[in-house]
C-alpha cells in the first residue's frame, strides 16, 4: 500500500476542502478520487469510513477527513488533515463576510450559485450510487472472476438488500429515531458480514 506524507495529506485535504461546494457529501467523491484511486486505502475501507462518518455527530466531510488522517498517521494525522479540510472554508467565509453586502445582489453572483446547485447535486448522487453499489452488489474485481458468480443471483448481496428494504420500510412507516436504525445496521454488520 503506497504511503503519503503528512504534508501531502494536508495538501490533499486542503484541495478537497477548497473545491467542495455543496456540503460534506460532495467531498466524498473528491476524497475517493484523491485517496482511494491513489491506493492509500481500499474502496471497502473507504465506504466503511463513510458509513461510520455518517453515523457520528458532526459534518461528514470533517468526520471523513479526521478518520482518514487518523487511519494513515494516527492522532497527529487526524488533527492535521482535519485542519486541512476546514481551513479553506474558514478563509472563504472570512473573505465573503468582509465583502458580502457589496456583491450579494449582483446577477453574476446569483447565476454562479444557481449553476452550482445542480453540480453539487450530481456529486452527491455519484457518492450515493457508489455506496449503494458497494453495499448491495458483489462486483468481481476481474472479468475472470465474473464466471464464478452463479448467474445474476450471485451479483447481489441478498442479506444487505433485505436489511436495506426492512430498514427503509421501518423508517418510512414508524417514527423510530434514526440512531436506532444505525445501531441495528451496526449490529447487522457485526453479525452477518
From TrEMBL:
<comment type="similarity">
    <text>Belongs to the chromate ion transporter (CHR) (TC 2.A.51) family.</text>
</comment>
<dbReference type="InterPro" id="IPR052518">
    <property type="entry name" value="CHR_Transporter"/>
</dbReference>
<feature type="transmembrane region" description="Helical">
    <location>
        <begin position="120"/>
        <end position="140"/>
    </location>
</feature>
<keyword id="KW-0812">Transmembrane</keyword>
<keyword id="KW-1133">Transmembrane helix</keyword>
<protein>
    <submittedName>
        <fullName>Chromate transporter</fullName>
    </submittedName>
</protein>
<dbReference type="InterPro" id="IPR003370">
    <property type="entry name" value="Chromate_transpt"/>
</dbReference>
<feature type="transmembrane region" description="Helical">
    <location>
        <begin position="6"/>
        <end position="30"/>
    </location>
</feature>
<keyword id="KW-0472">Membrane</keyword>
<dbReference type="GO" id="GO:0015109">
    <property type="term" value="F:chromate transmembrane transporter activity"/>
</dbReference>
<keyword id="KW-1003">Cell membrane</keyword>
<dbReference type="GO" id="GO:0005886">
    <property type="term" value="C:plasma membrane"/>
</dbReference>
<feature type="transmembrane region" description="Helical">
    <location>
        <begin position="161"/>
        <end position="192"/>
    </location>
</feature>
<dbReference type="Pfam" id="PF02417">
    <property type="entry name" value="Chromate_transp"/>
</dbReference>
<feature type="transmembrane region" description="Helical">
    <location>
        <begin position="79"/>
        <end position="100"/>
    </location>
</feature>
